[in-house]
Specification:
By secondary structure, the chain is α/β, with parallel strands linked by helices. It folds into two domains: 105 residues, ATPase, nucleotide binding domain (Nucleotidyltransferase, domain 5), CATH 3.30.420.40; 160 residues, Nucleotidyltransferase, domain 5 (2-Layer Sandwich), CATH 3.30.420. Helices cover 35% and strands 26% of the residues. The protein contains eight helices and 13 strands. β1 and β2 form a beta hairpin. The radius of gyration is 20 Å and the shape is globular. The chain starts with a strand and ends with a strand. Keywords: ATP-binding, Coenzyme A biosynthesis, Kinase, Nucleotide-binding, Transferase. This is Pantothenate kinase. InterPro entries: ATPase_NBD (IPR043129), Type_II_PanK (IPR004567). GO terms for molecular function: ATP binding; pantothenate kinase activity.
């Protein structure tokens, strides 16, 4: 059997992986000015870097919002489109080794996908994600480069931005420790430093996403959440997520290839005929 290529096509960034014998092969990402350029640039680079010939490719699986711009087979190869939410679920299950989870896909916004055994379903989402962080940073920090925002935030003090239970109460409230956030940005001053604003923005986005995921599982017995997407690369995840885990007694998991889970899931959908795909 040849290699199956999974491609998550964004508007300006494309992620691509190969699946061979059930294993992920050399994931990469490529940026470009439009989805078509991004797709073909990523595909060519992937084949070149891994010394793969077109004849070695068994199938190409596309997903992501940018895949809507692709209407013909990639380089004449057999090409299908996979449902993005199914791809999220398959990729997260594969990378986490768990099959009873909520997948939290942190992209421009955030989508929530519930996996319970073989059943994968989109259960909602929120309009908070990387796009929110970029937009607010553009207004408040004069940059929309998330890596730059993260670096600035390394020297920030979030206690100067967020209001905690300890700031407004003499003792803990039922079920809430003194360190719990009562109000994001509730303690911010008009002369807050750039560093403090940066950590405040990141904290606001990550905590909103994490808590939304937990609230989405109320009424079920799911207590594990697999976090995927670009925002999982922020080092601040290691500060924001543990308090949520402790407060709600849950586990927020960031798998090894968290950034590429959707592309991985797209490739895996080729092998699993229970999930519908669209032939190009």
């Amino acid at each position: 059997m040849g290699i199956v290529i999974g491609i998550d096509v964004g508007i300006s960034t494309t992620k691509i992986v190969g699946i061979r014998d059930g294993h992920v092969v050399s994931p990469i990402r490529v940026k470009a000015t439009d989805p078509v350029t991004s797709l073909y640039g990523a595909f060519g680079k992937y084949l070149y870097d891994n010394k793969i010939q077109l004849s070695d490719v068994e199938h190409v699986m596309l997903t992501g919002v940018g895949s809507a711009y692709i209407n013909e087979p990639v380089y004449g190869l057999p090409t299908d489109k996979a449902n993005e939410f199914i791809a999220d679920g398959l990729g997260a299950r594969h990378e986490s080794g768990r099959d009873k989870i909520i997948v939290v896909s942190m992209g421009t916004g955030t989508s929530l996908v519930k996996c319970d055994g073989d059943k994968i379903e989109h259960i909602g989402g929120i309009g908070i994600g990387g796009g929110t962080l970029q937009g607010l940073a553009r207004l408040m920090l004069k940059t929309d480069d998330i890596r730059t925002v993260s670096e600035i935030a390394m020297n920030g003090d979030v206690s100067k931005i967020n209001l905690t239970i300890g700031d407004i109460s003499a003792k803990p409230l039922p079920g809430l420790p003194m360190s719990a956030v009562a109000s994001l940005f509730g303690n911010a001053k008009s002369d807050a430093s750039r560093e403090d604003i940066a950590i405040g923005l990141i904290w606001a986005v990550l905590q909103s996403v994490g808590q939304s995921a937990v609230l989405a599982s109320i009424g079920s017995d799911i207590r594990e959440y697999v976090m995927i997407g670009n925002l999982t690369l922020l080092p601040q995840c290691r500060r924001v997520f543990p308090p949520i885990e402790k407060l709600y007694r849950v586990k927020l998991i960031i798998p090894e290839y968290s950034e590429y889970c959707t592309a991985i899931g797209a490739a895996l959908s080729y092998f699993d005929k229970r999930y519908k795909t669209e032939r190009l």
